[in-house]
Amino acid sequence: MLKALIVIDVQNDFCPGGALAVPGGDEIVAGINVLMDGFESVILTQDWHPSGHSSFASSHSGTAPLDLIDMPYGPQMLWPDHCVWSSDGAKFHQDLNLTRADLIIRKGFNSEIDSYSAFFENDRSTPTGLEGYLRTRGISDLTLVGLATDFCVNFSAQDAAQLGFSVAVQQNLCRAIDIDGSLNVAQQAMRAVGINLL
Ligand code: VGL
Ligand code: ZN
Predict the structure, then answer these.
(1) What is the 3-state secondary structure (H, E, C) of 53-95?
(2) What gap in Å lies between CA 21 and CA 5, rounded to an integer?
(3) Which tens digits make up the pLDDT trace of 145-170?
């Protein structure tokens, strides 16, 4: 039984000063680096959007960040432009230890579909390939940390649990966007599918 640490989206745009800054996003970096030592495998995710991505409010006339729009796959929250391919904002926080990463998985690169989860895009059916990577390596236990607790960590953790992985979220090494109680909703949903909230 192999254990992996999955570090979600610890990128400049989600840290203070970034385009979609999560409060305290930079505070978790040192603790994540220390936690890496306890895992056989470390996997990083990187939100990675082409410019003009359909999740950006700037791509739709008459909309603002945090508006909800109807996409072919369902409702989608709009965001400021963030984590655009090769921008500084898309880079990992400069203090994050990249050396231990076995795999860096990028998501959200499909212009027409956002991807909060590290497993499936927001149409809930297009796979990123992470499930196959984990299964073929015999990794069954996942601990998730990173940004943001209520979006990408939440969606990734729920998908992992639904796929049958044993999942924990180490909350002190996560930070939330928390829009209209979204953190509380996410915590309830994660508990309901058997995720261990540490
Ligand atoms: C995220 C909104 C848009 C996240 C990514 O990493 O939680 N949130 N893109
Ligand atoms: Zn994004």
Answers:
(1) CCCEHHHCCCCCCCCEEEECCEEEECECCCCECCCHHHCECCC
(2) 23
(3) 999 999 999 999 999 999 999 999 99
Amino acid identity, residue 168? Answer: A
Alpha-carbon gap, residue 149 to 178, rounded angstroms:
8
Asked whether the CA dihedral 170, 138, 9, 35 is positive or negative, the reply is positive
Enter the pTM of the model. 0.95
Task: Name the residue of 6, 7, 8, 9 to mutate for ligand 1: max ligand atoms within 8 A of Cβ.
Answer: 9
Q: Which atom of ligand 1 lies closest to the CA of 153? A: 7
Nearest CA to ligand 1 atom 4: 152
